[in-house]
Q: What sequence folds into this?
């Protein structure tokens, strides 16, 4: 995967989620096909922390099942950084269990939110192109 495609509407939805959750990190699952996001699932951050997140396993199980039923796969995982840059933390790297998904990070550190996408494979971080379509 070199890029991830996502609609304006979904980006807005993710930013709204991040702002609503402030000052805690929020997280969610991006469902779609190939490298295109078609649905955003908001998830509960069970850590309720400004510097870390962990998705509720029960919710994740339910969402995985729903995605399968809809013929979608997990294209990405997003989470917010309320007080940090849009770059994976060492904890994010150590908890990146999926090689083939895009990790989107929304930073609220500055006046304007910043979103970047990464692949995290064998502890190596590679930035992906974020293609925002109408
Ligand atoms: Zn993080």
A:
């Amino acid at each position: 995967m070199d890029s991830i495609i996502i609609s304006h509407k979904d980006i807005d939805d993710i930013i709204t989620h991040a702002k609503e959750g402030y000052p805690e990190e929020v997280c969610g699952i991006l469902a779609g096909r190939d490298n295109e996001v078609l649905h955003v699932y908001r998830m509960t951050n069970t850590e309720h922390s400004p510097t870390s997140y962990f998705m509720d396993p029960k919710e994740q199980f339910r969402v995985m099942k729903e995605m399968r039923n809809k013929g979608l796969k997990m294209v990405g995982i997003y989470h917010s950084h309320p007080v940090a840059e849009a770059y994976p933390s060492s904890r994010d790297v150590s908890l990146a269990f999926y090689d083939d998904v895009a990790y989107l990070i929304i930073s609220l550190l500055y006046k304007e939110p910043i979103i970047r996408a990464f692949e995290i494979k064998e502890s190596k971080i590679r930035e992906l192109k974020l293609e925002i379509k109408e």
